[in-house]
Amino acid sequence: MTALDKQRRKKLQAVVDKDYSYRSYYDDDIEVKSTGRCGFGVYAARQFQPGELVFEVTGQLINKKHYEGSEYVMDLDEDWYLEPSTPGAFMNHSCSPNCELVQLTEFSLGVVAICNIEAETEISFDYAWEAFDWNPKCQCGARNCRGWVVSEDEVKKMKRLAKGRKKKPR
Ligand SMILES: [Zn+2]
Question: Which CATH superfamily is domain 26-127 in?
Answer without folding.
Answer: SET domain (2.170.270.10)
